[in-house]
């Protein structure tokens, strides 16, 4: 089907989201950061919550059309994130056919790079996986795709391992994860843009610094670590965050994978024990199949040659977050070094399009988050650097998780400049 529509030269819009946000106006509430108080004020308002509970990033909600007047009459100080969330989702959601995948159906035997037009739109899960196969076909001597494990619904958690001239598994690792939070679509494609630039620099343009980096480090890149949640955002509810785990005796579906990593997992205040919460941590540390797969995979990589740099890519609000999330009074031993590099990264990002990223330890910079990836990867897998990067847009921009596709390339460009700076300085 994808082949047919591509050959005919037009794109089918992806399956209409079943949850409609048409006419929903999204706001960040600025003047009252007490979650319970805001919830009370909103008791007669029909809305969908778009933020997590204990947040210093601001409480964000999408107000249903019939409640907008009543909400505005409350007189809260707000920032408008989407005038019409449904209209912005429609603008974003025209998945263009992936041209390289057409080549790949005849096997990508020509050994070309995937078509750069891939980055002109967002993509369904199958195209994300195809993109990895195509990069691997382009770099047959320096890469292999892998499956870290299966999701709750049995989908592959698929990644690509890139290595330099000395072969696989000999050099310290750089691990990048995208789309742990299903609705954060900019993350998977931005990580793929970085992957594209590594492949292009290593083989096509002969970019010396990229060649040196790949000869000195092994990359393990998984653009979509939460495939079930991601598919759910493309087919059912664009604003879904968690995985799709159904638990006995619970009415709500889904565990927040970024509260389920088995380290300092149930520290009070850092996550929720309630299944209906957006930050539900699960019933036991690491009890999601996805996190079980990711911890196994990460430990194997760590055992091979250690982990130099881990990044868990999120959106939004333009932040570079270092450990720890679980506690505001505990710091990693090498915090100064991590902050120095995070600061350099922020500067390098800004030099491209002028976009500002704030950096700092997670708990002190945004909020307490326990059972998060970076704390586990730093403490247990003993990575030297373990960060969460929150991509575009900024918290004062007029978009949130739903970002027009024409921002994919600029996002990729600034992150690539940033990553190159890190490679040259870490
Ligand atoms: O709350 C989160 O999980 C992240 N923010 S988001 O708005 N994307 O949901 C921040 C957590 C950063 N910490 C780790 N990655 N551990
Ligand atoms: Zn996130």
What structural category arises from helix and sheet content?
alpha/beta
The side-by-side strand order for the widest beta sheet comes to 5-6-8-7-9-12-10-11
Share in β-strands: 15-25%
Number of domains: 2
Radius of gyration: 21 Å
The average pLDDT value, as a whole number, equals: 91
Number of strands: 12
Range of helix content: 25-40%
| CATH-defined fold name of the largest domain | Aminopeptidase
CATH class of the largest domain: Alpha Beta
Bound molecules: N~2~-sulfamoyl-L-arginine, zinc ion
SS element count, helices: 14
Shape summary: globular
Walk me through what this model shows.
By secondary structure, the chain is of the alpha/beta class. The chain has two domains: 25-92, Alpha-Beta Plaits (2-Layer Sandwich), CATH 3.30.70; 99-233 and 280-425, Zn peptidases (Aminopeptidase), CATH 3.40.630.10. It is 36% helix and 16% strand. It has 14 helices and twelve strands. It has helices spanning 2-8, 35-41, 68-73, 85-92, 99-105, 125-138, 185-204, 208-216, 227-235, 289-305, 335-353, 362-365, 373-379, 408-425; strands at residues 25-29, 47-49, 59-63, 78-82, 143-150, 156-162, 173-177, 218-222, 307-315, 319-322, 358-361, 385-391. A hairpin with a 5-residue loop joins β5 and β6. α6 runs parallel beside α7 (185-204), α7 crosses α8 and α7 (185-204) crosses α14. The protein is globular and about 65 Å long. Bound molecules: N~2~-sulfamoyl-L-arginine (0X9) and zinc ion (ZN). Keywords: Carboxypeptidase, Disulfide bond, Hydrolase, Metal-binding, Metalloprotease, Protease, Secreted, Signal, Virulence, Zinc. Residues 1-17 form the signal peptide. Extracellular metalloprotease that contributes to pathogenicity. It is found in: Secreted. This is Carboxypeptidase M14A.
